[in-house]
Amino acid sequence: MKAFVVIPTYNEKDNVKTLTSAVLAQHPDIHILFVDDNSPDGTGLIIDRLVAENERVHVLHRTGKLGLGSAYREGFKAALSMEADYLLEMDADFSHDPTMLPMFLSSMKESDLVIGSRYLNGVSVVNWPIRRLMLSYFASAYTRWVTGLELRDCTSGFKCFRSSVIKAIDLTRVTSDGYSFQIEMNYLCKQKGFCISEIPIIFIDRHAGTSKMSGAIVREAVFMVWKLRLSTIYSKLTGR
Ligand SMILES: Nc1nc2c(ncn2[C@@H]2O[C@H](COP(=O)(O)OP(=O)(O)O)[C@@H](O)[C@H]2O)c(=O)[nH]1
Ligand SMILES: [Mg+2]
């Protein structure tokens, strides 16, 4: 079994080394694929050293900041070409707890996509400013309302896909650049009838580095959900 943890990085120099040992320690069949967008803080060079030190660490270097969504699309393609059985998504800032990885893998027995949920049992988020927490919490409620997705956490970035799921989705038609990539992928998985489940996680705000969240990322998500909904209505009406 090969499980690839795909980790997009932009200015994460203080996190990648400790994260690598924490992730690799969880299971002997886990590989890491970093997708670094030419981070100005030198993250890419640190990752190159980690790749040289360990055959389970891989990296995709990109020319500039191209967004989290495209980082995952390119990372998934590369991981599939390295015969990944499972494709995991994880942030590089320890907001996602590496010790949860075995739980994701064991939960894949019954599901095609397992989502680490911050809102399964109330709210499991630590140290986020209230504004940010409200934004995230209501983004899920808004997404449920517009798309009909029945997930408690529609925007979580801690997930595990069976590789056949990613193969079944035409990634060239997935257009989100920012965090609405999570919504779009969840929605396409549901449309294709894959079995999706949520497991509870605790999300802790980052210690090192800064968030890449922006107004543009929020705006993209606000409109993306309507695009998804309208595309379903259109295909129902036209049968295409
Ligand atoms: N390669 C790449 N990684 C990104 C980009 N934007 C964010 N990331 C990474 O995506 C993950 C989540 O970003 P973060 O800023 O922590 O988001 P937040 O937790 O929602 O504030 C982190 O590992 C970032 O380094 C990007 O444009 N390109
Ligand atoms: Mg973060």
Structure description:
The protein has 240 residues and is of the alpha/beta class. The protein has one domain (3-238): Spore Coat Polysaccharide Biosynthesis Protein SpsA, Chain A (Alpha-Beta Complex), CATH 3.90.550.10. Helix content is 42%, strand content 17%. The protein contains eight helices and nine strands. It has helices at 16-24, 43-53, 68-81, 101-107, 130-147, 163-168, 180-191, 215-238; strands spanning 3-9, 30-36, 57-61, 86-89, 113-117, 125-126, 159-162, 196-200, 203-204. Strands 3-2-1-4-7-5-8 form a seven-stranded mixed beta sheet, sandwiched between helices. The protein has a two-stranded parallel sheet with strand order 6-9. Strand 1, helix 1 and strand 2 form a beta-alpha-beta unit. Helix 7 packs parallel to helix 8 (215-238). The longest helix is centred in the C-terminal third of the chain and has 24 residues, at 215-238. It is globular and about 55 Å long. The model has no long low-confidence stretch (mean pLDDT 96).
